Amino acid sequence: MTQWLLIDWILAVMTGWLLVGVAGVLALRRLGIVSHLLFPLGGLLGLVLFALAVGALLGTPEVAVLPIGLPSLPFHLRLDSLSAYFLMVIGAASAGISAFAAGYFRKGEGTPPGLLCLEYHVFLVSMVGVVLADDAYSFMVLWETMALSSYFLVTANHRIAEVRSAGSLYITMARIGAIAILLCFGVLQANTGDYSFANMRAQALTPFWASTGFLLALFGYGAKAGVLPLHVWLPEAHPAAPSPVSALMSGVMLNTAIYGLLRVSLDLLHLRLWWWGGLLLAVGLATALFGVVFASVQTDMKRLLAYSSIENMGLIFVGIGLTLIFAGFGMQPLAALALTATLYQVASHACFKSLLFLGTGSVLHATSERNLGKLGGLIRTMPWVGWLSLLGVLASAGLPPLGGFVSEWLLLQSFLFTTGLPVPLLTMLIPVVAALIALVAALAGYTMVKFFGVIFLGQPREEKLAHAHDAGLWERAGMLWLALGCVALGLLPTRFIQLIDPVTQQLVHAGLGARVADHGWLLAPNSLAQASYGPVIFLLGILGCFALAFLMVRWLYHGRMRRGRPWACGFPWGTARMQDTAEGFGQPIRQIFEPFFVMRRELPTPFDAQPRYRVVVEDHFWRWLYAPLIALANVLARLIGRLQQGRISVYLMYSFVTLVATLLAVMR
To answer: Are 251 and 350 in contact (CB under 8 A)?
Structure first.
């Protein structure tokens, strides 16, 4: 009997997901079966994938060939350290999201529950397949399957015009990016006709063609990741989708774009040109700053998180750029440090952003509100959602001792060791970039304070919020799993870096695993003399401060405390209208970064019976780039439409002219 390899077990998980989806179609409208049986089963398969991927990280590469393509083009699959790492992230995040989905989906989502189950699990299978693909044919088939299944998930509530519009924009950008990726593979195969990744690795492209392939990959994968100026679909599609789908797209699907860029730039291409890294550094920094500034002024909680995802993708691109700069100059240990920070951010983002999107889903179900201006005080009626969301907020803000802090700290450590670069311009500019990264981190903290404070703290801004219900058991289980991921990434960085080590060894031939293992619980990416961070020590310090404050209050003021209304500058009738609103919280950012925005204001007049003040913030890129392109496309469509007159004589004339032109071309 042939012994199964890890890749065979992973294929079994994919088959299990497909069977779960098919079972959903058979139980098309039976919500109880779909929610309480099929989605939990899908989450369990995600846990199995997570365990298999951890084992694959520590093993040797494995390959498989599936005879499911065209007769001469089967699917070639390969499980190596890079693919295993992203499979681990997919498995861990999907387990929590699927558990949450078991309690989230209701009747009336627009699409029958069983069909949603099929689309959801096909989406999962396609993402796993993208990460395993070992040739351009299977990669593109699975990439397009991922795009189409996610499109149907985004448009689940297709009866709403805005949802249909967001889905159209998303699928259009996905098609444009896919064309660029296909052209990239065409360049990498170097006119050999062999589109396997093994052949692409063997090609010694000239700097011109290697750079062409890299730029096409940057455009194609950048469109999927939502980097500037290809970001316009992301703040539209994520709010339109159901919350578990938003979590899966933001926390998992965006990472497949990171996987693709790493696969091309550090595996398939044999060259490492430093200016590639400089370009990624500039694009990533602009994306991160743009995303966090726009996130800080949003009044829709899901759009806020969508722009925050743009910021996170920008930071990951900065990390890849720094990796390519170091690799281009042969500074492998520093390339390993920057790549470790990048991969850590990938895992951390998958946990905290998925957790936050799930938290907004619970709030949306309990209140039927996405507008921050109509929320508030929900931590009293939704304590589970509030406290678990707080962990996601702290991780997203980059505060210790959670995973978001470790990834950003490692990234800043990478910037501190750039003084040895042989290009003086880079040596001069990179400290400026590091300062801007610190600004982005500070604004991210500001945004998360706004997000959590406006939704969960203070007094309810609407009467109906007093009747909001907390998340159910399945929803709590899913959020708790992701919250534990944020905590584990923060408290066990040395152990996690040792898991990352095989990936950095594969891509840049260096790693931090042995170095950090020497210091036990203390994280020192280079040496104790240069920088170190003790997450457990930091956590014990925080707990000690809380305990000391509690004991001092109990001992010093025991029996002399009384509860009273908060003092509001002498005003005795404090109401929810006196609290900071989302618009008021974002006003300083709107004023400081006013050139970033296109703002439309609706101002009240003294004669209004119900005065209303409203600010709409729009994107310059839409007006400068996309609106003219849409207008041009409409003009061309109208011109081409004139060719279709509906008369048989006109169509015969087209055929005759085409035939004559073909004959003339052949005669020449």
So the answer is: yes
